[in-house]
Amino acid sequence: MKKMFKLQWLSVLMLALVLVGCGAKEDTNKKTVSKEDQQVEKTSYKVKDDRGVEVEFTAVPKTIVSLQPSNTEILFSLGVGDKIVGATEYDTYPEEAQKIERVSDSTKFNSERILALKPDVVIAYTTGGKDEENLNGLKGLEDAGIKVFAIQSAESFDDVYGDIEQIATVMGIKDKGDKLNEDIKAKIADVQAKVKDVKKQKSIYLEISPKPSIYTAGSGTFQQEILDTANVKNVFDELQGWKPVSEEDVIAKNPEVILTTVNYVKDPAAEILSRDGWNSITAIQNKAVYYIDTDISNRPGPRISEAVELIAKAAYPELFK
User: Hey, what domains does the chain have and what are their CATH numbers?
Assistant: First the structure.
């Protein structure tokens, strides 16, 4: 009886060893699943865009078309820029963005090419208008089965932080979005700490369009928030939005520093310094006229902290030595 039991036990043991062996072999052949792939395997989720549409994703997008340069910069800053298969003609930062296929000039996009690329999502933009042509175009993409996530053009730093949070959520990396926002705020706080004890704000004239049609940025603009955060005084802050001004207006304001974001004329700072009748302006006399990178200063994206630093350094260079 004991012998019979012993044989049965040995049979069970042999069977167990065979099963374990099979299991071990199966484990060695099993593909390692990365964290990113694990995210893709998550159950479906919804994210509300700035049209109020809840866009449902059954998996984290692997391919993206970005229709606004600031959104492209956000995607790269989040570490998922390599997923972008289509972008606009103005997507120049970072350098890798310049290699992406162009499917839009920022105002009109090539629907046929976007459909051919078959992206998992189009990160689009909206200005908030109900009947805008852009939205009608987006509807055409949606009707063709393309997922569209629309973000309203940012008008404030808080809008930028919100855009980053939305895009990070769409890409299944909300923690990275939170970290990016924390880093941007920390850099801005560092600049503000350097300029907070300034007793008298420097007066600034910001030129965004040159002669003969001179334009500047007033209150209610993204640029005004940058100037405020850098602790400088916009000489045209009584204006609302982007407004035309005359040469006489600028001369009468007598700014201490002149900044230009114009990038389509040769040496815009030198052009301002050479203008007839402007030699009475303090900024001209002190040669305090500087070009500020237009993409950094005008683009509501993750480089807003750099924009604040550029303005502060131009106004208070002695505080950044």
Answer: 38-183 (3.40.50.1980), 198-316 (3.40.50.1980)
Contact (Cβ atoms closer than 8 angstroms) between residue 61 and residue 120 = yes
How confident is the model at residue 126, as a pLDDT?
A: 83
Q: Which residues, in sequence order, are CB contacts of 93 under 8 Å at separation 6+? A: 69, 73, 76, 295, 303
Q: How far apart are CA 125 and CA 106, in angstroms?
A: 9
Query: Residue 1 has what pLDDT?
Result: 42
Q: How many of the other CB atoms lie within 10 Å of CB of 228?
A: 16
How far apart are alpha carbons 161 and 157 in whole angstroms? 6
pLDDT (tens digit per residue) in 263-282? 999 999 999 999 999 999 99
d(CA 84, CA 71): 11
CA atoms of 235 and 268, how far apart (whole Å): 20
Low-confidence ranges of the chain (pLDDT < 70): 1-42, 128-136
**Contacts for 158 with CB less than 8 Å, ≥ 6 apart:** none
